[in-house]
Design goal:
- The protein has 201 residues and is an all-alpha fold.
- It is built from nine helices and no strands.
- It has one domain.
- The longest helix is centred in the middle third of the chain and has 29 residues.
- The protein is globular.
- The model has no long low-confidence stretch (mean pLDDT 94).
- The structure holds protoporphyrin IX containing FE (HEM).
- Protoporphyrin IX containing FE (HEM) binds next to helix 3, helix 5, helix 6, helix 7 and helix 8.
- Protoporphyrin IX containing FE binds next to helix 3, helix 5, helix 6, helix 7 and helix 8.
């Protein structure tokens, strides 16, 4: 049952990702789109940020698969290392772009987002090395939540709440940071929560 819910959830996230790419990233196919001029000053930082970000976004869901982990733990470990290196590099580049090229008002929320993306990924890797797999599961969940903010920060304002103003955007970014940090605890906590189990005295 849990596996079906998990697969359904990841399928949902995949569809949301495809819609986001179609709605928000179509400009990639339009050479005269004004976005290109905006990216010009930091294009050499943005390019590796995007390449490693895409790698992390694509590999992340595989790391939650119990089937893959049981079938071949070595593949799980190697994909985990690639995910972690990609997310660590992408988050550092995001932090640099935010601090140097973003408008000052955006620096706090975007800087915290990028910094926490780096920190949660590092904690996920360290807990795996220490073989503390309960902590590892929680930190990977937090790290991937932050990786997925790439989709959520575009899908929600473009598709769900079009016309959002600057204050709305800022609140949305903070909300996504909080959700990324606490959702893994809620999911793992709920999995062990049995409201109808008889009381044990
Ligand atoms: C905590 C997570 C992240 C932060 C803080 C972050 C930060 C940034 C910043 C500051 C920009 C420049 C925006 C601008 O001036 O228009 C940017 C652009 C971009 N980032 Fe990230 N990023 C994050 C995650 C990701 C991930 C996971 C991906 C890959 C899937 C990604 C892909 C992109 C792309 C494609 C752009 C170009 C703008 C666009 O086409 O929407 N980012 N990012």
């Amino acid at each position: 049952m849990t596996t079906i819910i998990k697969r359904g959830a990841f399928l949902g996230l995949f569809v949301v990702t495809l819609v986001t790419i179609w709605v928000h990233e179509r400009y990639v196919l339009q050479p005269h789109n004004p976005q290109w001029a905006h990216f010009q000053p930091f294009r050499w930082w943005l390019l590796p940020h995007v390449a490693t970000g895409v790698l992390a976004l694509g590999l992340g869901p595989l790391q939650f698969s119990n089937t893959l982990r049981r079938w071949n733990p070595k593949v799980h470990r190697w994909l985990g290392r690639v995910y972690a290196v990609a997310a660590l590099i992408s988050s550092l580049l995001a932090l640099y772009i935010v601090l140097v090229y973003e408008i000052p008002n955006n620096r706090w929320v975007m800087g915290v987002m990028a910094g926490l993306w780096f920190l949660t990924t590092a904690c996920a890797w360290i807990s795996a090395l220490k073989r503390d797999f309960i902590q590892h599961k929680l930190w990977v969940g937090r790290s991937y939540g932050l990786t997925f903010t790439f989709v959520a920060t575009r899908f929600l304002p473009d598709v769900v709440w079009p016309g959002m103003d600057y204050y709305g955007y800022t609140a949305l970014y903070w909300m996504l940071i909080i959700i990324s940090l606490i959702l893994p605890d809620l999911i793992i906590g709920l999995a062990g929560f049995r409201p109808f189990r008889p009381r044990i005295d």
